[in-house]
Design a protein that fits this description.
Length: 154
């Protein structure tokens, strides 16, 4: 039996975390890791105590908002935001950590990740937000498409 690499292990966990999402458009998971230890996790969905979109209906769908635009027109938080909030509420220092995420971050999450001191982002698939990737590069945060990591391309 072959053991998964650390990157495979953490990305597999990220996929399980994403299954907790109640978003009707996409299920996203995020895991913050430092020194091979999971610090926090997050998935996209409404704030605690707020009715989930799968009950109320998707506001973005109702308003025909395209993916990657008008993030404020949503009842939910992104997975990365929830991982950062979890760290803050539990007193966990995520500076210098690696973010594993099912999708590359949007621009709002990117700005939060930069200020939180994240050093690397490994994502499973891209997201429609060119400015986000430009800012990650400018900030010096390493970004990797997961397929490139597991194939040894990084």
């Amino acid at each position: 039996m072959e053991r998964p690499s650390w990157d495979e292990y953490f990305m597999d966990i990220t996929l399980v975390v994403a299954r907790r999402s109640t978003c009707m458009r996409r299920q996203v998971g995020a895991v913050m890791v430092k020194d091979k230890n999971i610090l926090t996790t997050g998935y996209n969905g409404t704030p605690s105590g707020i009715t989930h979109c799968n009950v109320t209906g998707c506001l973005r769908e109702q308003l025909n908002v395209p993916s990657g635009e008008r993030h404020e027109l949503c009842r939910g938080l992104h997975a990365e935001q929830n991982a950062i909030i979890q760290a803050a509420s539990q007193g966990v220092n995520i500076s210098g950590s690696v973010l594993y995420c099912t999708d590359s971050p949007c621009i709002i999450c990117t700005k939060m990740l930069i200020n939180a001191g994240i050093r690397k982002v490994i994502y499973l698939k891209g997201y429609a937000d060119k400015l986000s990737m430009e800012m990650l590069e400018e900030s010096g945060i390493e970004t990797y498409l997961y397929a490139d990591v597991v194939s040894g391309g990084c």
